[in-house]
Amino acid sequence: MELTTLWFTLIAVLFTGYFILEGFDFGVGILLPVLGRDNRQRRAMINTIGPVWDGNEVWVITAGGAMFAAFPHWYASLFSGFYMLFFAILVGLIIRGTAFEYRGKGDTDRWRRNWDRCLFTGSVVPAFVWGVVVANLVRGVPLDANFDYTGSIWGLLNGYALLGGLTTLLLFSTHGAYFLHLRTTGDLADRARRLGWKLGVATAVPVLAFLLWTQIAHGNGASLVLIVLAVLALAAGLVLDYKDRSGWAFAATALTIGSASAAVFCALWPDVLPSTSDAANSLTHENAAATQKTLGIMSWAAVVFLPVILLYQGWTYWVFRKRVMVERIPVA
Questions:
Q1: So where does this one cross the membrane (predicted)?
Q2: Any residues with CB less than 8 A from the CB of 64 and at least 6 apart, and which?
Q3: I need a surface site. Which of 102, 123, 186, 314 has the fewest CB within 10 A?
Q4: How confident is the model over 88-112, as pLDDT tens digits?
Q5: Bridge-partner residues for 283, per DSSP?
């Protein structure tokens, strides 16, 4: 395998892992005002992701760093052209992170409600905008001969991209509901299961529409296989959630997100950022790549450090694997 192919694959894996792990984080934040009937239930929901949410964000930081080092032209064109979208994601993540830290610093209901609103907003915005980014990535944008984006912010808000945003928003919400069903007990878990099933049904339509549009407009044989797998996993998640199989339902939506993300990257290949104005201006895995020496050094670093990171994060999930019980949350 060529080093450019290897690093495109690794970046795709990092983004896919981010969407799977941060997806249920976003989902919990989105569902906070829906499922959390009182402060104890909302605290229980937050406690399910409290030990892992910041670690999950490492995946996208690593993906961005790998893109910068392995494909500097891709990084420059993407982050400059999609600046306003990434800025919206960044603001949402900052608001969200601040809400996690400051919610428990005050004793009044008003204080907590305000930070709960921040947590909700900071989850909704990135969950939606990431779908817009991914959709535009595979659809392509107008680039000039210097690989600079020549469109406007409004050009990024096209119908396909907005459908992508709606897809990730609903899919992450469903993923979060299944996660809460898995990680909580009692009435909160029961309501999460019922809401997860309803969300899963509502999610099926935009997911099918977005993946079908992707396959028709940009897909290939590999993406078709992954899209079929994503659809089957989504259907399996609905059945498993209905039968109260929380762990398997959560695994099914994880597979849905992973397969759909992989399908998008397969549809993108061999480009990394297609040009809609002139195909000759498209960024590919070859003309966007760093030197072979740089890629070689990065590959050895990845061989050493990636397993360590995976083992550490796996250990973190294992330590905090127990269900969160509302009755054990202090009233105050």
A1: 6-35, 56-75, 81-99, 119-141, 153-174, 195-216, 222-240, 247-270, 297-320
A2: 75
A3: 314
A4: 999 999 999 999 989 988 888 899 9
A5: 273
Tokens of 326: 């509302």
The amino acid sitting at 247 is G
